[in-house]
């Protein structure tokens, strides 16, 4: 049940929080800001920087856009052209990260070129490994909030992610990031017993995007792959709306406090319940009059917040973590193989929506 | 998407927190304490009181017991004899609740008599409806913590639930509680459209027990049945142990703070993520030298704690709630039918334990 303690798996990570990106801000200007954060990260010995959802643009799903306007917010990801890391407008970001030997996880609006030349649009984050010199992990947002059709109530606040993006088609694929830590067990070492290699290889990473963090299913699928770090960028409005898009009747201060409560319960609760670190990073501040919450936090597998943003601007939030700290939860309370009873979970797959018990 | 607002669904509920129950304390003495809490509840117009896990006895899984000792902690539940509500030693509790027109949810060690006369032991809670005059909901703990074999490390703290109980065989069965609120829609009203009856019938209740509250799967299965109130009793040690049963190296104060953080993240996070109230009630204080945390809390569907215990003794923690408050979450952020993508959740059923990605 216990394991001999391997050498520690220390690592310095960071959330690269971004202040607002306004309509019309160029990719170049945003990437310049991100590169400045990477320079700071390098000086602080950071090995991984997580950037927000849709980091390169304003949060455009708040607007009803025509096809031409919409196109300007997307970046083309063409596998035959080297993918996003080689896309002309954004290549500089990845190259800069590599020059500092820093991994980055970054969100963008992906226009995915299909084999037949057509395209499909996703809300995507990729994980770029400086050691590998390429993208080693890709995630497309599964839990798209909002609606396809604009809300029609007077004063309604729009959330059109379901209109602009297709739900992610990649599931929740955990992956390993090479070169992040020293001394990771490798395939060439020839260890074939999973118990012997458990939590000893290159770090296991999962990606979530914004609203996904409220859905225990995504976290659990990552947990079931032994994930040690979840990277989650977000754009979250600082106020609360109803199903109609209308504002909930509460003060701005109350609403922001509630939004932050929900954010923290989701990130801290799910990190704890899956015994993983999570790096949760905001695009924040006021984008063209639209307030976004901050609350960038790095969470420990025991559920504590270990580092938190102090501003609503561009800010590097840095923490030194030890991946060994995932072990206590994964070996005891959340030793899934000992405690989970999958025969009682069937409803999780058998129905998407709730079905109430019959009336009495 | 929106619904016309029905009349409010107000209800006064309570957690019947219990202080310690020591080895040798009689059922009679414990039930007397519970009846005193029910008397207070009646005077405060409470309609539902939730009592802790294993409320009638000390938390005996901390001891290695022989069959004879073990037997003394179980209550026989024989369906041919009217079940637990008619069991001679505990009948008074249910009768007293009914005399006050109060529903109770109560945990006990169930020795379930089988058709062939043999028995199976479970860690169980039942929901007794005063209106129906019988048990209308039963739950047997699915996520049993601890181990079958005693820990052998020096100073190890035992947790033998896996030795003494079989994992629950009933899944997570939500049920409706008649008579709790006025004006509930009934089958005889002839409404056949689920959208019309949604959240308008008798309250939908689910039961969890202690460690279950840390497992998002149970909460979600209840959420997928439209559950409005989760009743969760617990006995939780006020210190932290490793997978070996040995103490984690931290001060008593730090350990208790961490245990309470995990408790609150679990109850608040999962209530929020399923848009339901939860009534989380401790057996607390020091049982024969063994400290249990308090932290009895009633949680709102928006994740707030709306009422919290002030002591580590017998204490009635009362809150007036409005089941209508479940509606905002269930109709927007957690409108499961709009947002869940079950095709990406298969791993939740396909594997019990974690399988890591291949080594690089």
Automatic annotation (TrEMBL), chains A, B:
Domain of life: Eukaryota
Domain CN hydrolase as annotated: residue spans: 11-323
Keyword line: Hydrolase
Keyword Hydrolase annotated: yes
UniProt-listed Pfam families: CN_hydrolase
Coiled coil residues, start to end: none
An annotated Gene Ontology molecular function: hydrolase activity, acting on carbon-nitrogen (but not peptide) bonds, in linear amides
The UniProt record lists the keyword Hydrolase: yes
Protein's UniProt name: CN hydrolase domain-containing protein
Record lineage: Eukaryota, Fungi, Dikarya, Ascomycota, Pezizomycotina
């Amino acid at each position: 049940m216990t394991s001999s303690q391997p050498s520690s798996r220390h690592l310095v990570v960071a959330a690269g929080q971004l202040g607002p990106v306004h309509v019309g801000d160029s990719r170049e200007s945003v990437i310049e800001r991100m590169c400045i954060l990477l320079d700071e990260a390098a000086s602080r010995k950071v090995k991984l920087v997580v950037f927000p959802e849709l980091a390169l643009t304003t949060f455009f799903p708040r607007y009803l856009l025509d096809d031409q306007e919409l196109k300007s917010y997307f970046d083309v990801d063409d596998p035959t052209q080297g993918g996003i890391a080689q896309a002309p407008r954004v290549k500089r970001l990845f190259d800069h990260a590599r020059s500092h030997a820093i991994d980055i996880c970054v969100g963008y609006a992906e226009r995915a070129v299909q084999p037949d030349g057509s395209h499909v649009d996703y809300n995507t984050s990729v994980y770029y490994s400086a050691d590998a010199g390429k993208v080693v992990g890709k995630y497309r947002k599964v839990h798209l909030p909002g609606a396809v059709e604009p809300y029609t109530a007077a004063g309604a606040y729009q959330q059109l992610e379901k209109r602009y993006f297709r739900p992610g088609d990649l599931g929740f694929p955990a992956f390993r990031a090479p070169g992040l830590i020293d001394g990771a067990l490798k395939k060439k070492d020839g260890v074939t017993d999973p118990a012997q290699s458990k939590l000893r290889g290159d770090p296991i990473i999962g990606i979530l995007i914004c609203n996904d963090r409220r859905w225990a299913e995504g976290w659990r699928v990552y947990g079931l792959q032994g994930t040690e770090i979840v990277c989650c960028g977000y754009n979250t409005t600082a106020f609360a709306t109803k199903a109609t898009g209308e504002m909930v009747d509460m003060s701005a201060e109350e609403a922001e406090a509630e939004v932050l409560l929900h954010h923290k319960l989701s990130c801290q609760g799910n990190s704890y319940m899956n015994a993983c670190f999570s790096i949760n990073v905001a695009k924040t501040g006021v984008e063209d009059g639209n307030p976004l919450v901050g609350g960038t936090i790095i969470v420990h597998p025991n559920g504590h917040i270990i580092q938190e943003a102090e501003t609503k601007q561009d800010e590097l939030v840095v923490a030194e973590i030890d991946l060994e700290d995932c072990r206590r939860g994964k070996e005891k309370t959340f030793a899934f193989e000992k405690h989970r009873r999958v025969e009682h979970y069937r409803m999780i797959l058998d129905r998407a929506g709730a079905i109430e018990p019959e009336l009495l």
